[in-house]
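Quarterly update from the structural biology core.
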Amino acid sequence: MKKFFPLGYDSTSEIGWVLTLYIIALVSNLKLLYLIFNEKKAFLSMRYPYYHESKVIRYYSTLCDGSQFIFILLIIYRIAIIYAHYKYHSKGTKSIYTMKRLKNANELHFRCISFPAIVIGISIVSAISLIFINYHVYMSIMPKHALQAGQLENLLRAMCKIDFYLP
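Predicted structure, tokenized:
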């Protein structure tokens, strides 16, 4: 694990912050699951509005109230840490010039960018996976007759801010 950090860098606090933010993200995901189950409970208790003579459930994308926002914060935090890793080599005896004279000229860049890049990649994959896992849970527990048409298109539109023109 030390090869992913600058030489002499204390990585325990950085790993601790990453794990803490992941735990917060998973707790906010549990909140989203709670909202999904609460939505079904409200629907079954007849507290739902009627739309063209039948009850309909809100779009899944309206329930996603920023539960993935923690992943965005984690990505921004990791980008800032890349700068901090480079600044770490400029302090005192940890000369950036020494790192540049090593056999492998890219060692400095590898040590400064590798761990943040890994965390950014895992964060993006985790956020997208959780969105679609929750979408699958939503679609599987809600009554089929009460779902509005175009749930997936609405979700993709909300994620990408793209309008899909489907026939």
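Strands lie at 50-51, 54-55.
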